[in-house]
């Protein structure tokens, strides 16, 4: 996956904004103001994605390219390499959507309904 594919996919999801709250090098995607994906815009070697805690551990055990979230809550976030590590683009798209859906599910009902 390339950075433009990542950007286009994230922005195609409802209610998503692209921001730089951690400085000019860290590209952040939020849904209704809540973070669901981030990456280094210059290197684009990995992305941090929110993950169900039980699933997060399973993915780390199954894929070399999945590790506990770098600079994130290790229980709820994974860092996923964007090239190699046994991870196809299809899986990466699926995990981005899973991250988005987890955040949407945690939003107040009224906010979810507005999506």
From TrEMBL:
Coiled coil: none annotated. InterPro entries: YjbR, YjbR-like_sf, YjbR/MT2646/Rv2570-like. Pfam families: YjbR (PF04237). SUPFAM superfamilies: YjbR-like. GO terms for molecular function: DNA binding. Keywords: DNA-binding. It comes from the Bacteria. Gene3D superfamilies: 3.90.1150.30. The keyword DNA-binding applies. The keyword Transmembrane does not apply. PANTHER family: CYTOPLASMIC PROTEIN, CYTOPLASMIC PROTEIN-RELATED. This is Predicted DNA-binding protein, MmcQ/YjbR family. It comes from Chitinophaga rupis.
């Amino acid at each position: 996956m390339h950075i433009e594919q990542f950007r286009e996919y994230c922005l195609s999801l409802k209610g998503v904004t692209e921001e730089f709250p951690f400085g000019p090098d860290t590209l952040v995607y939020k849904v209704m103001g809540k973070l669901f994906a981030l990456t280094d815009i210059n290197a684009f070697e990995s992305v941090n994605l929110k993950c169900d805690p039980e699933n997060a551990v399973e993915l780390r055990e199954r894929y070399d390219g999945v590790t506990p979230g770098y600079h994130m809550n290790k229980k709820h976030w994974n860092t996923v390499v964007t090239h190699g590590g046994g991870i196809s683009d299809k899986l990466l798209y699926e995990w981005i959507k899973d991250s988005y859906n987890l955040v949407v599910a945690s939003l107040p009902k009224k906010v979810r309904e507005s999506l």
